[in-house]
Design brief:
5 strands; 5-stranded mixed β-sheet; 175 residues
Amino acid sequence: MAKRELQEINAGSMADIAFLLLIFFLVTTTMESNYGIRRKLPPPETEKTEKPPVIKKKNVLEIVINNQDQMLIEEEPADVKDVKKIAIDFITNNGKNPESSDNPQKAVISIKHGRETTYKKYISVYNELIAAYNDIRNRYARQKYGKPFDKLTEEEQKVVKDTYPQKIAESTPKR
């Protein structure tokens, strides 16, 4: 009996196939990326630090979230669902209520939170504040330009943002 020769498999193209599969999976796979909250950080301190502007207490809406995720708005217990309405009323007060903001340019919303406040609670309150500003800006854009804020030109959006600037201050409560 004669010995049979073993057939060899041509593996020359295996590297090409593996490389093509690698490229295919790299191109078609979506990577989940976490998006944070867009922030404008304060400039670095210099030797010549300017004094912060004096803000009247009535122009500041104070929201406090403690370590147990309980919330106070102006020292009154509140729920997340109340935040948007309270913020809209505060920002658009225009001096009608003498104990609330003078005008939208002076209105500042302060969020103070404990170190143990959950991220979920903080983000839900922050989202309600952003929704309040979006609602106000949309109403103003429709009133002034007859179309929603996101359909405005850059110049028109700047006018709306200047009329209703988003001023949200954050801090952790003092111990």
